[in-house]
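ASSEMBLY PREDICTION REQUEST
Request ID: AP-0331
Submitted by: J.K., bench scientist
Number of chains: two
Total residues: 544
Priority: normal
Notes: Please return the full assembly, not individual chains.
Input sequences:
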Amino acid sequence: MELCSFLTLDSFITDPLTHDFMRKALLMSSLVAAVCGFLSSYLTLKGWALMGDAVSHSVMPGVVVAYALGLPFSLGAFIFGVGSVALIGFIKQKSRVKEDTVIGLVFTGFFALGIVLVSKIKSNIDLHSILFGSPLGISLSDVKQTIFISLLVVILLSIFRKDLMLYCFDPRHAKTVGINVLFLHYLLLTCLSLAAVVGLQSVGIILVVAMLITPGATAYLLTDKFDNMTVISVLSAIISSLIGIYVSFWFDLETGGSIVLAQTFIFLFAFLFAPRYGIFKLKKLFAGHK
Amino acid sequence: METINYQNFRIEAENICVDYNGKVALYDANLRLKPGQICGLVGMNGAGKTTFFNALTGFVNISKGKIRINGESVRSAQKDQTIAYVPQNEGIDSQFPISVWDVVMMGRYGSMNIFRCPRESDVQAVKDAIDRVDLTDHLSTPIGNLSGGQRKRTFLARAIAQRASILLLDEPFSGVDIRTEKLISELFIQFKNEGKTILLSTHDMIHVREFCDLVLLINKTVVAYGETSEVFTPENITTTFGGISPDFLFGPES
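STATUS: Completed
Returned structure:
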Protein backbone atom coordinates (compact mmCIF):
# COMPACT_ATOMS: atom_id res chain seq x y z
CA MET A 1 0.00 0.00 0.00
CA GLU A 2 2.81 2.35 0.95
CA LEU A 3 4.53 1.53 -2.29
CA CYS A 4 1.45 2.42 -4.34
CA SER A 5 1.19 5.83 -2.72
CA PHE A 6 4.75 6.49 -3.68
CA LEU A 7 3.97 6.13 -7.34
CA THR A 8 2.25 9.49 -7.63
CA LEU A 9 3.70 12.72 -6.41
CA ASP A 10 0.18 13.91 -5.84
CA SER A 11 -0.56 11.38 -3.15
CA PHE A 12 2.92 11.80 -1.74
CA ILE A 13 1.88 15.33 -0.88
CA THR A 14 -1.83 14.98 -0.20
CA ASP A 15 -2.00 11.74 1.79
CA PRO A 16 -0.29 13.12 4.91
CA LEU A 17 -2.66 16.08 4.79
CA THR A 18 -5.57 13.82 5.64
CA HIS A 19 -4.12 13.48 9.14
CA ASP A 20 -4.95 16.24 11.55
CA PHE A 21 -1.60 15.98 13.36
CA MET A 22 0.26 16.32 10.06
CA ARG A 23 -1.62 19.44 9.04
CA LYS A 24 -0.85 20.95 12.43
CA ALA A 25 2.79 19.91 12.26
CA LEU A 26 3.25 21.36 8.77
CA LEU A 27 1.62 24.65 9.73
CA MET A 28 3.43 25.04 13.04
CA SER A 29 6.81 24.06 11.68
CA SER A 30 6.48 26.47 8.77
CA LEU A 31 5.63 29.26 11.17
CA VAL A 32 8.55 28.43 13.44
CA ALA A 33 10.84 28.15 10.43
CA ALA A 34 9.73 31.54 9.17
CA VAL A 35 10.48 33.17 12.54
CA CYS A 36 13.86 31.49 12.93
CA GLY A 37 14.72 32.19 9.30
CA PHE A 38 13.91 35.88 9.69
CA LEU A 39 16.13 36.16 12.77
CA SER A 40 18.78 34.01 11.15
CA SER A 41 19.84 36.81 8.76
CA TYR A 42 20.72 39.04 11.68
CA LEU A 43 22.52 36.37 13.68
CA THR A 44 24.63 35.33 10.70
CA LEU A 45 25.67 38.90 9.94
CA LYS A 46 26.24 39.81 13.57
CA GLY A 47 28.38 36.71 14.08
CA TRP A 48 26.17 35.40 16.85
CA ALA A 49 26.04 31.74 15.85
CA LEU A 50 27.71 30.68 19.08
CA MET A 51 25.38 32.93 21.04
CA GLY A 52 22.44 31.18 19.37
CA ASP A 53 23.88 27.85 20.41
CA ALA A 54 24.33 29.08 23.97
CA VAL A 55 20.85 30.50 24.36
CA SER A 56 19.11 27.51 22.83
CA HIS A 57 20.87 25.06 25.16
CA SER A 58 20.47 27.27 28.20
CA VAL A 59 16.68 27.27 27.99
CA MET A 60 16.63 23.58 29.01
CA PRO A 61 16.37 24.01 32.81
CA GLY A 62 13.79 26.75 32.23
CA VAL A 63 11.59 24.35 30.29
CA VAL A 64 11.88 21.68 32.98
CA VAL A 65 11.15 24.04 35.88
CA ALA A 66 8.21 25.60 34.06
CA TYR A 67 6.71 22.18 33.36
CA ALA A 68 7.18 21.15 36.98
CA LEU A 69 5.49 24.32 38.22
CA GLY A 70 2.72 24.15 35.65
CA LEU A 71 3.75 27.43 34.01
CA PRO A 72 3.90 28.05 30.28
CA PHE A 73 7.20 26.46 29.28
CA SER A 74 8.04 29.45 27.08
CA LEU A 75 8.19 31.64 30.18
CA GLY A 76 10.78 29.47 31.90
CA ALA A 77 12.76 29.09 28.70
CA PHE A 78 12.77 32.81 28.13
CA ILE A 79 14.02 33.61 31.65
CA PHE A 80 16.86 31.11 31.43
CA GLY A 81 17.73 32.14 27.86
CA VAL A 82 18.14 35.80 28.76
CA GLY A 83 19.70 34.85 32.10
CA SER A 84 22.42 32.82 30.40
CA VAL A 85 23.37 35.78 28.24
CA ALA A 86 23.48 38.08 31.25
CA LEU A 87 25.68 35.58 33.06
CA ILE A 88 28.00 35.26 30.05
CA GLY A 89 28.37 39.04 29.96
CA PHE A 90 29.02 39.19 33.71
CA ILE A 91 31.68 36.46 33.79
CA LYS A 92 33.39 37.87 30.73
CA GLN A 93 33.62 41.31 32.30
CA LYS A 94 34.76 40.12 35.71
CA SER A 95 37.34 37.56 34.69
CA ARG A 96 40.19 37.16 32.24
CA VAL A 97 38.61 34.14 30.57
CA LYS A 98 37.98 34.62 26.83
CA GLU A 99 34.45 35.06 25.55
CA ASP A 100 34.06 31.83 23.58
CA THR A 101 35.25 29.88 26.61
CA VAL A 102 32.74 31.66 28.84
CA ILE A 103 29.93 30.98 26.37
CA GLY A 104 30.88 27.31 26.20
CA LEU A 105 31.06 26.79 29.93
CA VAL A 106 27.87 28.71 30.75
CA PHE A 107 25.63 26.96 28.26
CA THR A 108 26.89 23.48 29.00
CA GLY A 109 26.41 24.21 32.70
CA PHE A 110 22.81 25.26 32.13
CA PHE A 111 22.17 22.31 29.84
CA ALA A 112 23.57 19.86 32.38
CA LEU A 113 21.41 21.45 35.07
CA GLY A 114 18.40 20.84 32.86
CA ILE A 115 19.24 17.17 32.36
CA VAL A 116 19.83 16.65 36.09
CA LEU A 117 16.51 18.35 36.88
CA VAL A 118 14.64 16.11 34.47
CA SER A 119 16.01 13.02 36.19
CA LYS A 120 15.09 14.37 39.62
CA ILE A 121 11.71 15.97 39.10
CA LYS A 122 9.10 13.24 38.83
CA SER A 123 6.71 14.37 36.18
CA ASN A 124 5.49 13.47 32.76
CA ILE A 125 8.19 15.50 31.05
CA ASP A 126 9.27 13.74 27.92
CA LEU A 127 13.02 14.29 27.76
CA HIS A 128 13.09 12.94 24.24
CA SER A 129 10.64 15.52 22.90
CA ILE A 130 12.57 18.37 24.54
CA LEU A 131 15.87 17.22 23.16
CA PHE A 132 14.72 16.21 19.70
CA GLY A 133 11.46 18.09 19.20
CA SER A 134 8.01 16.71 18.60
CA PRO A 135 6.30 18.66 15.85
CA LEU A 136 3.88 15.77 15.31
CA GLY A 137 2.68 15.86 18.89
CA ILE A 138 2.10 19.57 19.51
CA SER A 139 -0.74 20.19 21.96
CA LEU A 140 -3.39 22.86 21.50
CA SER A 141 -1.94 25.11 24.22
CA ASP A 142 1.49 24.77 22.62
CA VAL A 143 -0.03 25.80 19.30
CA LYS A 144 -1.48 28.96 20.85
CA GLN A 145 1.83 29.78 22.55
CA THR A 146 3.81 29.20 19.38
CA ILE A 147 1.53 31.42 17.32
CA PHE A 148 1.62 34.18 19.92
CA ILE A 149 5.41 34.15 20.32
CA SER A 150 6.01 33.88 16.58
CA LEU A 151 3.81 36.87 15.85
CA LEU A 152 5.49 38.86 18.59
CA VAL A 153 8.96 38.17 17.21
CA VAL A 154 7.93 38.87 13.62
CA ILE A 155 6.33 42.17 14.61
CA LEU A 156 9.37 43.26 16.65
CA LEU A 157 11.80 42.32 13.90
CA SER A 158 9.66 44.06 11.28
CA ILE A 159 9.43 47.30 13.22
CA PHE A 160 13.15 47.45 13.99
CA ARG A 161 14.29 45.78 10.78
CA LYS A 162 16.44 48.66 9.56
CA ASP A 163 17.78 49.63 12.98
CA LEU A 164 18.85 46.04 13.61
CA MET A 165 20.55 45.94 10.24
CA LEU A 166 22.43 49.12 11.14
CA TYR A 167 23.25 47.68 14.55
CA CYS A 168 24.77 44.58 12.96
CA PHE A 169 26.60 46.58 10.32
CA ASP A 170 27.96 49.62 12.16
CA PRO A 171 26.92 50.03 15.81
CA ARG A 172 29.27 52.98 16.22
CA HIS A 173 27.41 54.97 13.60
CA ALA A 174 24.10 53.98 15.17
CA LYS A 175 25.28 55.34 18.50
CA THR A 176 26.67 58.52 16.92
CA VAL A 177 23.32 59.44 15.39
CA GLY A 178 21.45 58.89 18.65
CA ILE A 179 20.02 55.39 18.08
CA ASN A 180 19.71 53.35 21.29
CA VAL A 181 22.24 50.60 20.67
CA LEU A 182 21.80 48.94 24.06
CA PHE A 183 18.08 48.57 23.37
CA LEU A 184 18.78 46.96 19.99
CA HIS A 185 21.28 44.59 21.60
CA TYR A 186 18.73 43.34 24.09
CA LEU A 187 15.98 43.33 21.50
CA LEU A 188 18.01 40.95 19.36
CA LEU A 189 18.79 38.78 22.39
CA THR A 190 15.12 38.71 23.40
CA CYS A 191 14.08 37.67 19.91
CA LEU A 192 16.80 35.03 19.95
CA SER A 193 15.51 33.54 23.21
CA LEU A 194 11.92 33.58 21.99
CA ALA A 195 12.87 32.02 18.66
CA ALA A 196 14.83 29.31 20.45
CA VAL A 197 11.73 28.59 22.52
CA VAL A 198 9.46 28.10 19.53
CA GLY A 199 12.19 26.39 17.54
CA LEU A 200 12.78 23.69 20.12
CA GLN A 201 9.25 22.41 19.53
CA SER A 202 9.95 21.46 15.99
CA VAL A 203 13.54 20.32 16.10
CA GLY A 204 14.37 20.16 19.81
CA ILE A 205 16.95 21.90 21.94
CA ILE A 206 19.98 20.21 20.44
CA LEU A 207 19.23 21.15 16.86
CA VAL A 208 17.41 24.45 17.27
CA VAL A 209 20.61 26.37 16.65
CA ALA A 210 20.56 25.00 13.10
CA MET A 211 17.20 26.72 12.56
CA LEU A 212 18.82 29.95 13.73
CA ILE A 213 21.97 29.90 11.62
CA THR A 214 21.68 27.63 8.59
CA PRO A 215 18.99 29.55 6.65
CA GLY A 216 20.88 32.83 7.13
CA ALA A 217 24.15 31.26 6.04
CA THR A 218 22.48 29.81 2.93
CA ALA A 219 20.94 33.16 2.02
CA TYR A 220 24.25 34.95 2.61
CA LEU A 221 25.79 32.87 -0.17
CA LEU A 222 23.01 33.71 -2.58
CA THR A 223 22.59 37.47 -2.46
CA ASP A 224 24.26 40.82 -1.85
CA LYS A 225 21.08 42.58 -0.75
CA PHE A 226 19.94 42.49 2.83
CA ASP A 227 16.21 42.40 2.05
CA ASN A 228 16.67 39.54 -0.40
CA MET A 229 18.74 37.75 2.19
CA THR A 230 15.88 37.87 4.66
CA VAL A 231 13.39 36.60 2.09
CA ILE A 232 15.65 33.76 0.92
CA SER A 233 16.43 32.83 4.50
CA VAL A 234 12.74 32.59 5.43
CA LEU A 235 11.85 30.67 2.27
CA SER A 236 14.67 28.15 2.62
CA ALA A 237 13.71 27.60 6.26
CA ILE A 238 10.05 26.98 5.38
CA ILE A 239 10.89 24.69 2.46
CA SER A 240 13.27 22.67 4.66
CA SER A 241 10.57 22.23 7.29
CA LEU A 242 8.06 20.98 4.74
CA ILE A 243 10.58 18.62 3.13
CA GLY A 244 11.72 17.38 6.53
CA ILE A 245 8.23 16.61 7.77
CA TYR A 246 7.14 14.85 4.56
CA VAL A 247 10.29 12.79 4.43
CA SER A 248 9.99 11.82 8.08
CA PHE A 249 6.35 10.83 7.54
CA TRP A 250 6.97 8.58 4.57
CA PHE A 251 10.22 7.03 5.68
CA ASP A 252 9.47 6.99 9.39
CA LEU A 253 12.46 9.14 10.35
CA GLU A 254 13.08 11.46 13.29
CA THR A 255 11.28 14.70 12.28
CA GLY A 256 13.60 17.28 13.85
CA GLY A 257 16.67 15.66 12.38
CA SER A 258 15.02 15.46 8.96
CA ILE A 259 14.18 19.18 8.98
CA VAL A 260 17.72 20.17 9.90
CA LEU A 261 19.21 17.77 7.35
CA ALA A 262 17.02 19.34 4.67
CA GLN A 263 18.42 22.75 5.66
CA THR A 264 21.94 21.41 5.54
CA PHE A 265 21.40 20.01 2.04
CA ILE A 266 20.03 23.33 0.82
CA PHE A 267 23.08 25.05 2.32
CA LEU A 268 25.42 22.57 0.60
CA PHE A 269 23.65 23.20 -2.68
CA ALA A 270 24.18 26.95 -2.28
CA PHE A 271 27.76 26.35 -1.19
CA LEU A 272 28.46 24.45 -4.38
CA PHE A 273 26.33 26.23 -6.95
CA ALA A 274 25.61 29.78 -5.73
CA PRO A 275 25.95 32.12 -8.74
CA ARG A 276 28.60 34.36 -7.24
CA TYR A 277 29.83 32.76 -4.04
CA GLY A 278 29.46 29.05 -4.73
CA ILE A 279 32.61 27.08 -5.38
CA PHE A 280 31.43 26.21 -8.91
CA LYS A 281 30.00 29.71 -9.60
CA LEU A 282 27.09 28.73 -11.85
CA LYS A 283 26.98 32.16 -13.48
CA LYS A 284 30.48 31.75 -14.87
CA LEU A 285 29.73 28.23 -16.07
CA PHE A 286 26.73 29.46 -18.06
CA ALA A 287 28.63 32.45 -19.37
CA GLY A 288 31.35 30.08 -20.57
CA HIS A 289 28.87 28.06 -22.64
CA LYS A 290 27.50 31.04 -24.53
CA MET B 1 44.41 83.48 22.50
CA GLU B 2 42.04 80.88 23.97
CA THR B 3 39.86 83.41 25.76
CA ILE B 4 37.07 83.30 23.21
CA ASN B 5 33.51 82.60 24.32
CA TYR B 6 32.96 78.97 25.26
CA GLN B 7 29.95 78.80 22.94
CA ASN B 8 32.18 79.37 19.94
CA PHE B 9 33.82 75.98 20.23
CA ARG B 10 32.47 73.10 18.21
CA ILE B 11 34.35 70.56 20.29
CA GLU B 12 35.51 71.13 23.80
CA ALA B 13 37.06 68.21 25.64
CA GLU B 14 38.39 68.96 29.10
CA ASN B 15 40.65 66.57 31.00
CA ILE B 16 38.86 63.51 29.67
CA CYS B 17 39.81 60.01 30.81
CA VAL B 18 38.65 56.70 29.38
CA ASP B 19 39.33 53.32 30.86
CA TYR B 20 38.22 49.87 29.80
CA ASN B 21 37.68 47.63 32.83
CA GLY B 22 40.33 49.46 34.82
CA LYS B 23 42.84 49.67 31.98
CA VAL B 24 43.56 53.31 31.14
CA ALA B 25 43.28 54.07 27.43
CA LEU B 26 43.34 57.86 27.59
CA TYR B 27 43.87 60.35 30.42
CA ASP B 28 43.74 64.11 30.95
CA ALA B 29 43.16 64.80 27.27
CA ASN B 30 42.10 68.25 26.16
CA LEU B 31 40.92 69.53 22.81
CA ARG B 32 39.20 72.68 21.63
CA LEU B 33 38.12 73.12 18.03
CA LYS B 34 36.26 75.94 16.33
CA PRO B 35 34.12 75.90 13.19
CA GLY B 36 36.15 75.61 10.00
CA GLN B 37 39.17 74.08 11.68
CA ILE B 38 40.85 70.90 10.53
CA CYS B 39 42.81 69.08 13.19
CA GLY B 40 45.08 66.08 12.74
CA LEU B 41 45.15 63.42 15.43
CA VAL B 42 48.54 61.76 15.43
CA GLY B 43 49.82 58.91 17.57
CA MET B 44 51.03 55.34 17.56
CA ASN B 45 48.70 52.36 17.33
CA GLY B 46 47.14 52.00 20.76
CA ALA B 47 47.90 55.62 21.65
CA GLY B 48 44.20 56.29 22.13
CA LYS B 49 43.17 57.79 18.79
CA THR B 50 40.15 55.58 18.30
CA THR B 51 39.33 55.91 22.00
CA PHE B 52 39.34 59.69 21.59
CA PHE B 53 36.88 59.37 18.70
CA ASN B 54 34.75 56.95 20.69
CA ALA B 55 34.58 59.38 23.59
CA LEU B 56 33.52 62.26 21.33
CA THR B 57 30.77 60.21 19.67
CA GLY B 58 29.60 58.80 23.00
CA PHE B 59 30.40 55.23 21.95
CA VAL B 60 32.37 54.85 25.17
CA ASN B 61 31.73 56.69 28.41
CA ILE B 62 34.39 58.93 29.85
CA SER B 63 35.33 58.19 33.45
CA LYS B 64 36.48 61.75 34.17
CA GLY B 65 36.39 65.16 32.55
CA LYS B 66 33.85 66.93 30.40
CA ILE B 67 32.91 66.96 26.73
CA ARG B 68 30.87 69.74 25.18
CA ILE B 69 29.76 69.65 21.57
CA ASN B 70 28.53 73.08 20.41
CA GLY B 71 28.20 73.88 24.10
CA GLU B 72 25.86 70.92 24.67
CA SER B 73 26.23 67.39 25.99
CA VAL B 74 27.32 64.46 23.80
CA ARG B 75 23.82 63.03 24.22
CA SER B 76 22.16 66.04 22.64
CA ALA B 77 24.83 66.15 19.94
CA GLN B 78 23.79 62.58 19.05
CA LYS B 79 20.13 63.62 18.93
CA ASP B 80 20.97 66.62 16.73
CA GLN B 81 23.06 64.55 14.29
CA THR B 82 25.95 66.92 14.98
CA ILE B 83 28.78 64.40 14.69
CA ALA B 84 29.50 62.04 11.83
CA TYR B 85 32.03 59.27 12.13
CA VAL B 86 33.83 57.90 9.09
CA PRO B 87 35.35 54.51 10.03
CA GLN B 88 38.59 53.03 8.76
CA ASN B 89 38.12 50.54 5.98
CA GLU B 90 39.26 47.76 8.31
CA GLY B 91 36.61 48.80 10.84
CA ILE B 92 33.68 47.61 8.75
CA ASP B 93 32.51 44.28 7.38
CA SER B 94 32.98 44.75 3.63
CA GLN B 95 31.10 41.49 2.96
CA PHE B 96 27.90 42.82 4.53
CA PRO B 97 25.10 42.53 1.94
CA ILE B 98 24.38 46.21 1.55
CA SER B 99 24.54 48.68 -1.34
CA VAL B 100 26.15 52.12 -1.57
CA TRP B 101 22.70 53.70 -1.53
CA ASP B 102 21.68 51.88 1.66
CA VAL B 103 24.89 52.80 3.48
CA VAL B 104 24.52 56.48 2.62
CA MET B 105 20.84 56.35 3.61
CA MET B 106 21.98 55.25 7.07
CA GLY B 107 23.29 58.78 7.46
CA ARG B 108 19.65 59.90 7.52
CA TYR B 109 18.35 57.30 10.02
CA GLY B 110 18.84 59.53 13.03
CA SER B 111 16.42 62.12 11.68
CA MET B 112 13.79 59.70 10.33
CA ASN B 113 10.75 58.19 12.04
CA ILE B 114 10.99 54.88 13.88
CA PHE B 115 10.40 52.78 10.75
CA ARG B 116 13.18 54.68 8.96
CA CYS B 117 11.03 55.44 5.94
CA PRO B 118 12.94 57.85 3.69
CA ARG B 119 11.15 61.09 2.89
CA GLU B 120 11.63 63.08 -0.30
CA SER B 121 14.22 65.22 1.48
CA ASP B 122 16.16 62.16 2.65
CA VAL B 123 16.28 60.72 -0.86
CA GLN B 124 17.53 64.07 -2.16
CA ALA B 125 20.18 64.35 0.56
CA VAL B 126 21.44 60.86 -0.27
CA LYS B 127 21.51 61.59 -4.01
CA ASP B 128 23.43 64.83 -3.46
CA ALA B 129 25.90 63.21 -1.10
CA ILE B 130 26.63 60.33 -3.50
CA ASP B 131 27.02 62.86 -6.29
CA ARG B 132 29.59 64.84 -4.28
CA VAL B 133 31.80 61.78 -3.79
CA ASP B 134 31.40 60.83 -7.44
CA LEU B 135 29.73 57.44 -6.93
CA THR B 136 26.52 58.06 -8.88
CA ASP B 137 27.39 55.15 -11.19
CA HIS B 138 27.51 52.79 -8.22
CA LEU B 139 24.20 53.47 -6.44
CA SER B 140 23.17 49.83 -6.16
CA THR B 141 26.63 48.28 -6.06
CA PRO B 142 27.17 46.07 -3.01
CA ILE B 143 29.98 47.53 -0.90
CA GLY B 144 31.85 44.24 -1.22
CA ASN B 145 32.35 44.97 -4.93
CA LEU B 146 33.87 48.42 -4.38
CA SER B 147 37.54 49.32 -4.26
CA GLY B 148 39.03 50.58 -1.00
CA GLY B 149 38.82 54.16 -2.21
CA GLN B 150 35.21 53.84 -3.37
CA ARG B 151 34.25 52.31 -0.04
CA LYS B 152 35.91 55.18 1.79
CA ARG B 153 33.96 57.63 -0.35
CA THR B 154 30.73 55.78 0.41
CA PHE B 155 31.20 56.38 4.12
CA LEU B 156 32.19 59.97 3.47
CA ALA B 157 28.92 60.36 1.56
CA ARG B 158 27.08 58.97 4.57
CA ALA B 159 28.63 61.72 6.71
CA ILE B 160 27.66 64.33 4.10
CA ALA B 161 24.08 63.02 3.93
CA GLN B 162 23.89 63.25 7.70
CA ARG B 163 24.59 67.00 7.41
CA ALA B 164 26.81 66.86 10.45
CA SER B 165 28.80 69.92 11.43
CA ILE B 166 31.60 67.84 12.92
CA LEU B 167 33.37 65.09 11.00
CA LEU B 168 35.57 62.52 12.71
CA LEU B 169 37.61 60.52 10.23
CA ASP B 170 39.66 57.48 11.19
CA GLU B 171 42.58 57.14 8.76
CA PRO B 172 40.75 58.73 5.79
CA PHE B 173 43.74 58.29 3.49
CA SER B 174 44.77 54.75 4.26
CA GLY B 175 44.34 52.27 1.44
CA VAL B 176 42.82 54.69 -1.06
CA ASP B 177 43.73 55.38 -4.69
CA ILE B 178 45.11 58.70 -5.94
CA ARG B 179 41.74 59.78 -7.34
CA THR B 180 40.02 59.25 -4.01
CA GLU B 181 42.81 61.03 -2.18
CA LYS B 182 42.42 64.04 -4.45
CA LEU B 183 38.64 64.01 -4.08
CA ILE B 184 38.85 63.79 -0.30
CA SER B 185 41.28 66.69 -0.11
CA GLU B 186 38.99 68.81 -2.28
CA LEU B 187 36.06 67.93 -0.07
CA PHE B 188 38.05 68.93 3.02
CA ILE B 189 38.51 72.42 1.60
CA GLN B 190 34.79 72.62 0.81
CA PHE B 191 33.90 71.42 4.32
CA LYS B 192 36.22 74.00 5.82
CA ASN B 193 34.55 76.74 3.81
CA GLU B 194 31.13 75.48 4.92
CA GLY B 195 32.32 75.92 8.50
CA LYS B 196 32.46 72.23 9.35
CA THR B 197 34.98 71.07 11.92
CA ILE B 198 37.15 68.11 11.03
CA LEU B 199 39.20 65.84 13.27
CA LEU B 200 41.14 63.19 11.39
CA SER B 201 43.58 60.56 12.51
CA THR B 202 46.42 59.70 10.18
CA HIS B 203 49.72 57.90 9.96
CA ASP B 204 50.80 60.01 7.05
CA MET B 205 52.87 62.98 8.22
CA ILE B 206 52.66 64.69 4.84
CA HIS B 207 48.87 64.90 5.04
CA VAL B 208 49.13 66.62 8.40
CA ARG B 209 51.25 69.42 6.95
CA GLU B 210 49.03 69.63 3.89
CA PHE B 211 45.55 69.89 5.42
CA CYS B 212 45.66 70.38 9.12
CA ASP B 213 45.48 73.82 10.72
CA LEU B 214 45.99 72.22 14.07
CA VAL B 215 47.56 69.02 15.25
CA LEU B 216 46.97 66.95 18.36
CA LEU B 217 49.80 64.59 19.21
CA ILE B 218 48.77 61.89 21.64
CA ASN B 219 50.29 59.00 23.49
CA LYS B 220 47.62 57.97 26.04
CA THR B 221 47.48 61.68 26.85
CA VAL B 222 48.17 64.89 24.93
CA VAL B 223 51.84 65.22 24.06
CA ALA B 224 51.39 68.50 22.21
CA TYR B 225 48.54 70.49 20.75
CA GLY B 226 48.47 73.65 18.66
CA GLU B 227 49.04 75.19 15.23
CA THR B 228 50.64 72.63 12.94
CA SER B 229 53.51 74.97 12.05
CA GLU B 230 54.41 75.40 15.71
CA VAL B 231 53.67 72.01 17.22
CA PHE B 232 54.47 69.54 14.50
CA THR B 233 58.19 69.54 15.24
CA PRO B 234 60.62 66.63 15.02
CA GLU B 235 61.07 66.74 18.82
CA ASN B 236 57.35 66.47 19.52
CA ILE B 237 56.89 63.74 16.96
CA THR B 238 59.76 61.78 18.47
CA THR B 239 58.17 62.06 21.91
CA THR B 240 54.79 60.96 20.53
CA PHE B 241 56.24 57.89 18.89
CA GLY B 242 58.14 56.81 21.95
CA GLY B 243 61.61 57.93 20.93
CA ILE B 244 61.60 56.88 17.30
CA SER B 245 63.21 59.61 15.25
CA PRO B 246 61.07 61.46 12.69
CA ASP B 247 63.67 60.67 10.02
CA PHE B 248 62.68 57.06 10.37
CA LEU B 249 59.00 57.97 10.30
CA PHE B 250 59.27 60.31 7.34
CA GLY B 251 61.69 58.04 5.53
CA PRO B 252 59.26 55.89 3.55
CA GLU B 253 57.03 58.86 2.71
CA SER B 254 59.58 61.01 0.85
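REVIEWER COMMENTS: The first helix of chain A runs from residue 2 to 6.
SIGN-OFF: pending second reviewer
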